[in-house]
Amino acid sequence: MEQLTRLCALEGVSGFEFDAARQIRALFDTVCERTETDALGNVAGIIGAGKKKKIMIEAHMDEIGLMVKRIDSNGFISFVAIG
């Protein structure tokens, strides 16, 4: 549970998730037989390579990011998405 909490707390807005990927890989290195990172920065942890049965658990490591675009005279905030 502690590891899941730590993973969920990582900061990694789309396009800037490199530190999150590094920390995810470090965790995978401790529990997986093999860890790979591809050219796009995706991290894969492999356990039981070559076995007949396979399972994949997949999740996004980036998070939604917003940037304040404008605050009008009534205090309403306009956002623009990042990523």
Characteristics:
elongated; two-stranded antiparallel ribbon; 83 residues; 2 helices; two-stranded antiparallel sheet; alpha+beta; 4 strands
Helical proportion, percent range: 25-40%
Q: Looking across the biggest beta sheet, what order are the strands in?
A: 1-2
Strand content: 25-35%
Task: Let me know the largest β-sheet.
Answer: 2 strands, antiparallel
Any idea what the radius of gyration is? 18 Å
Shape, per Cα inertia axes: elongated
Number of helices: 2
Overall mean pLDDT: 89
Low-confidence stretches: none
- Head-to-tail CA distance between termini: 29 Å
Number of strands: 4
Order of helices and strands: HHEEEE
Structure description:
The chain has 83 residues and is an alpha+beta fold. 25% of the residues lie in helices and 25% in strands. It has 2 helices and 4 strands; from the N terminus they run H-H-E-E-E-E. The protein is elongated. The mean pLDDT is 89.
Brief write-up:
The chain has helices spanning 2-8, 18-31, and strands at residues 34-37, 43-46, 65-71, 77-82.
Task: Give me the secondary-structure topology.
Layout (H helix, E strand, L loop, with lengths): L1 H7 L9 H14 L2 E4 L5 E4 L18 E7 L5 E6 L1
Antiparallel strand pairs: 1-2, 3-4
